[in-house]
Structures are given as structure tokens and as C-alpha cells.
Input
Amino acid sequence: MLIGPNTVVNFSYTLTSEQGDIIDQSPEGESMSYLHGTSSIIPGLENELIGKTAGSEFDVTVKPEDGYGERIEEMVQKMPRSTFPADAEIELGMQFGAETAQGQVTVVVTEIEDDFVTVDGNHPLVGMTLRFVGKVEGVREATAEELDHGHAH
Ligand code: ZN
Output
């Protein structure tokens, strides 16, 4: 079966930066699965996988515009310390969910001052060229329930 709309794909991968540093990889002996055509993985990788089949290997370099996009300065916000619970321990690098104009996003604390906390809602891989090397482990037809939910089970 070929990867295309309404298929569920399992793949293993290693993600490296342009410089060759390993950023992420699927755990040994495990693969990740997604429902193709739902933008649940970045477009550059999803497009590369179209038409591949179980056993296919891939090696694709994805530019930021087909990956996590470019950095958006508006996603960096300085929030009054008083918007956090008084007993909240706020640390650099801490992540939490925040409601924004773009909906719920994960933000990371990048600066702490006496009265203000700066948070950044940009994805950690924003602006980066990414290389994915991996293998398609399996392709199957999505179930009616998966299509209904819009994700792989
Ligand atoms: Zn579901």
C-alpha cells in the first residue's frame, strides 16, 4: 500500500540539524504513527512520504517554511509577574500552556525579572533547516473511527 490520503503511516526517524546534531529520534524498536493528510507532521516530511511504502527509506532536508516556520516576534510576550499564581515557582526554561490569539500554545519562560516574566510561544525548532533520515515501517488504511477523529490510533 502506498502512502497517501486516508492511510496511517508508521515510521522511524532520526532528526538532525543542518550541522548534524541529533535533535530527536524515535526510540529504538518503536515508530511513530500518523494519519496522512491531516498536517499532524510537518509538511516537508509529509510530502516526502507520499507514494512510499513499507520498507521505503527516506532522507529529506526540510527548510523552515516547510517545517516549523519562521520566528514570530509577537509570540514573545512580557507578562506581569502578577498574572502568575503568587506561589508559582517560575524558572527559566519552564514550559506551560497559555491562551493566546492563536489559541492554546506551549510557551517557554525565557527571562525572569522582578515584575515581569518573558515567555516565548515559538516552537523550539522554528527557523531551523531540519534533516529527517528514517524508514517507513508500515502503511495501512485508516479506520472509519480514525478518519472521524482526524488522527491515528
Ligand atoms: Zn481518536
About this structure: The chain has two domains: 7-68+126-149, 73-120. The mean pLDDT is 94.
